[in-house]
Amino acid sequence: xxxxxxxxxxxxxxxxxxxxxxxxxxxxxxxxxxxxxxxxxxxxxxxxxxxxxxxxxxxxxxxxxxxxxxxxxxxxxxxxxxxxxxxxxxxxxxxxxxxxxxxxxxxxxxxxxxxxxxxxxxxxxxxxxxxxxxxxxxxxxxxxxxxxxxxxxxxxxxxxxxxxxxxxxxxxxxxxxxxxxxxxxxxxxxxxxxxxxxxxxxxxxxxxxxxxxxxxxxxxxxxxxxxxxxxxxxxxxxxxxxxxxxxxxxxxxxxxxxxxxxxxxxxxxxxxxxxxxxxxxxxxxxxxxxxxxxxxxxxxxxxxxxxxxxxxxxxxxxxxxxxxxxxxxxxxxxxxxxxxxxxxxxxxxxxxxxxxxxxxxxxxxxxxxxxxxxxxxxxxxxxxxxxxxxxxxxxxxxxxxxxxxxxxxxxxxxxxxxxxxxxxxxxxxxxxxxxxxxxxxxxxxxxxxxxxxxxxxxxxxxxxxxxxxxxxxxxxxxxxxxxxxxxxxxxxxxxxxxxxxxxxxxxxxxxxxxxxxxxxxxxxxxxxxxxxxxxxxxxxxxxxxxxxxxxxxxxxxxxxxxxxxxxxxxxxxxxxxxxxxxxxxxxxxxxxxxxxxxxxxxxxxxxxxxxxxxxxxxxxxxxxxxxxxxxxxxxxxxxxxxxxxxxxxxxxxxxxxxxxxxxxxxxxxxxxxxxxxxxxxxxxxxxxxxxxxxxxxxxxxxxxxxxxxxxxxxxxxxxxxx
Length: 722
Hints:
A hairpin with a 6-residue loop joins strand 5 (109-115) and strand 6. Strands 1, 2, 3, 4, 5, 6, 7 and 8 form an eight-stranded antiparallel sheet that branches. An eight-stranded parallel beta barrel has the order 12-13-14-15-16-17-18-19, surrounded by four helices. Strands 29, 30, 31, 32, 33, 34 and 35 form a seven-stranded antiparallel sheet that branches. It is elongated and about 120 Å long. Helix 9 (419-435) runs parallel beside helix 11 (469-479). The protein contains twelve helices and 35 strands. By secondary structure, the protein is of the alpha+beta class.
């Protein structure tokens, strides 16, 4: 079975400016010191060697790198071209090659080549007119793999080398703490650092890189040994430096389109777009080279939720083709990274266990898999077992249930879990990871972020720097205890009334049971978010007043739609409890009788089919706020109601869809032919217009002259009150 576990999350994960600088004295000393020169060494002897062919059993490729200059040799078949390749085990700066040929079986023309991955080769030197004996060839370049490519022989024999010696330098710096490896066998794997067991106890990283020195000590205090990033570039080093200073490792991410699962942009054709793929290979290789020996580097993570996200770009058989091509490219990246850095594993993240068969088929060079999973995290083990996979995994994002996997509330929006439930979600996530022994190698849970907005309150452990119940749940999971820590306020039984709705601009009531386990004095804030009403994810402090016993009177926004209201209780010790519910902002009630209700209604036009249409004129006078009249997308337009008899009209209420009128006139008529204007505006702003008029007429019309959007005009309700 497969689980789609995609989600949205806060933006702003990268970039930063280092805060540390060398003092003038230290800088002068560094500038004065001559650059260190590493000694040239023989790199090839005893290393794995392969060849295009061999003359017989006694002439294997390994004989050319065994150090025996006169007793053993490699010999090829008697044809052109032929090659001998050596894996140096790590990337090296190459300076010269020494080829000791046997008799008349030498290379008259040949090339010395280098490669990072053993597949794509660069020619460092071309030799023509060779005459056998011993060739000493100066070269300039670097690579992990080297080879002699013979293109022309002087006679009928093949190529025969007593010894192929490659000289050069490496930086001589092994990874701090030793190499990182996935060790063990099927179902009994372990991640090791320098040969010692290492369980990933991590968090995804949210603050600006420039703030890493500020937050990293707190991360360390939680028992965290690993952080995860989504992108690695020239700005990453200060984060790595700060992590290393606190003994924390980093899963260095590389972003590939279309990253982020459903809803994310950026489509690439992984079958045909070789330019994009080559650019990414080069870009990633540059930063692997830069950070492979950094003491904070734990592993490399290629892509984020792209197998799932490709459904935003393709469908049907083409989607299958692209998913296969994408995971094949991930394998190319893994091979490239291994060629540069054999000392750190490579993984790739998705948010759908249905991605794993593609990796299993197309990406054998990955050392382990990675998965983003939230409310259904325990199902990852089940899917891994049913899929018959042969590689371990880590969870690269996890925590409480997200928007995409909780039920809707009474207002039709996702019912956000309480702080108590969120804390339980982190505990469950860690229990699920540690419960899959020998396969799940740890997790970087989501999210050490400080954004205080819609997504930040849903997932961040420290929004606005305030610690929540979830923060302490993660700390308890990683350290086994939170003894001595002050506890955050706990909010339960939050309710919004009456009936989770409020009139635009009016007051509504919010109440909750609020307690502090340590008896600390509490202060309160009430916030509103228009994420579901207008797409604004910010939390804006509301106008409110406390009315006692955990009850607050809050002023509703003017804009109609479903809003989120938040209670935030702070204890003055750096902790906060935050609880949220939705409130539906509706049109204010108008006293009196709606004379337009279900009366004959006509219009200049209406949309017969578009989205929720047909949107006939009568739907503006049916008394229902979930139906609407919608006009053509042009000016002017009109809609009118026949009240059946002359009626004393004193108030109109217009409940607009987002497609509102900026300029319009209210007109009345006795006969439906001759009209007189009783109200005019050129500053309409949508939502609800309540208009006082004083007129007696049988017919009432809106003459709409300027739209506020590029759409037509659209009214949920055209109320005429007497």
